[in-house]
Amino acid sequence: MTKIVVFGASGKAGREIAAVAQSRGHEVTKIGRNPGVQAAAEIAAGHDVAVSAVADLSRDPAEFYREAAHALVASGAGRIIVVGIYTLMETAPGVRVIDSPDFPPEYRPFSLGHAAGVEVLAKSAANWLVMSPAGMFGGTPTGTYQLGPVNPSDELTYEDFALAVVDQIEHPTHHHTQLGVTSQ
């Protein structure tokens, strides 16, 4: 049994991740609202895995995601898994979705905020993984998923995404990277 804390457990992705982890017999601490950065570090301390499925749309995204990543690293949790976004995935070597000339400028700050959090993780010694769901949540759960490149038109259900996250908790095959997830 793994001791897991899920930040953002009141949201769709976090709720599904917590439910799948509990159904597999893991001890899950569910945190629904932003407890504050210092409290998050204290809550995550002593857990084998800290999952972050959080957003605070009232704050500057870069500031929020940097602080959240620092708190997770400072907690000393054995593994950190962050729910990312597909806009940071590469469409070609060194070219992310966000780098496209037709990427909507109004979504750029939020995407760059996520990137700032990933940079904090990348500079740390923590065991981390960013799992980025496909461009569109929807469809019928398949009970399967695919890891790898994602496209804006790819679909993924919250249920299938949760399976992918919990599988990486139970059998960690990817470390120190961002990984795309789509339904099969």
UniProtKB/TrEMBL annotation:
It comes from the Bacteria. Gene3D superfamilies: NAD(P)-binding Rossmann-like Domain. One of its GO terms (molecular function) is oxidoreductase activity, acting on the CH-NH group of donors, NAD or NADP as acceptor. InterPro entries: NAD(P)-bd_dom_sf, Polyketide_Oxido-like. This is NAD(P)H-binding protein. It comes from Lentzea alba. The lineage of its organism: Bacteria, Bacillati, Actinomycetota, Actinomycetes, Pseudonocardiales.
